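TL;DR need structure tokens for one chain.
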Amino acid sequence: MTFTSTKRSPAGVSGSTIINHKIRVKLDLTCEEYVVADYIYNWQKRNPKEHCPIDNDKEEMFRNIGIRSYEILETLFSLLKKKIVSDIQGFSIYSQLDDETRKKAIANHSELQMTVLPIWTDEFEGKLDKEFDEFWGVYGHVGNKVEANNMFRKARKVATYDHLLVRHQKYVKFLNSEEEKWRGKMNCSSWLNPMYKKFDDKYETKPAPEPEGDGELKFEM
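>> reply
TL;DR here they are.
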């Protein structure tokens, strides 16, 4: 008697994840974080008007991406902190709790609904690349372009593109003032670094001094 074994895909499992390590490194993600974000992103592409539901026992996600329930929760906490995803039920507050309290809170939580933020989707739609190329030109190509690109993507997690443009205009005006002309312009990567937020510094300039007298010319004979 001969037995044959046929390997079949589990029912209900579809899709695949190809990790773009260039994007993964830019967004400072682990492979697991990338896979979970990609799962949510692709679900929303198929259902553009809805948030991605994540059932309480995480069984569907486990079947599709092979990550265990508690690991998925920890990964979601990390993605929330990194502002790659957001939720609509206040799930992020659980990240502040100790493990035991968090497990109890989650056990009583209804189905979670998650969505990926523009910092993720823009990577696949090319928006951030276009924004950076424009900003790099506006800034004057000061410093290392690769480092500036990395910092630009991190800065965009905490600030809008329009905000960065407005703050840069303020910074240029500050550097061109009489009192600050001696200053050199910071490297673009340093100015964009979200750890120091130099783009949000108070770039105040002193108003030009008023002319002495009433402004009229007087001649003495």
